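Hi Y.,

Following your request, here is the sequence exactly as I used it, all 149 residues.
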Amino acid sequence: MPSNGDDKLSSWNASYYFGVHYQKQEGKSYIGVNLPLGEITCDELLQLGDISKKYGDSKLRTTLSQNLIISGISNEDGCEDAFTLWLGGTLNNDGKFTKNLNYRVKAIDVHRILEKIIFFFQENKVENESFNEFVNRIGISEIKNSTLN
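Below is the corresponding structure, written out as tokens. Let me know if you'd prefer a different format.
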């Protein structure tokens, strides 16, 4: 079917600015921080303020989606790609969401961390137990304590 005009929503991101992004100002980037339900504790907010003061322009900005942006970060400060790990989850039976490990991993270290988690699973699973069942039985805290400390 032929187009009836420009799709104005194709570049719209609903104010989800997670991760590191280049700013219009040359040599500067901003970091989008996800705040589940738009909530943040006083201590967390103060820590983000300290990060903004140390690496950015001492400003924290809010987004329409109730998240935060730390702006004015120099690209020379060497922002690194990193990942937050989520484990478990399945679409089978009743379905379950993945569980956040609450652990940031530099991109260059992801394979090492996953290897530790896989070995821990192989050494501690019961017969015919899937990884999702293992995560539900053992729990995220035990996996984190046994593989990341």
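The longest strand covers residues 99-106.

Thanks again,
Q.
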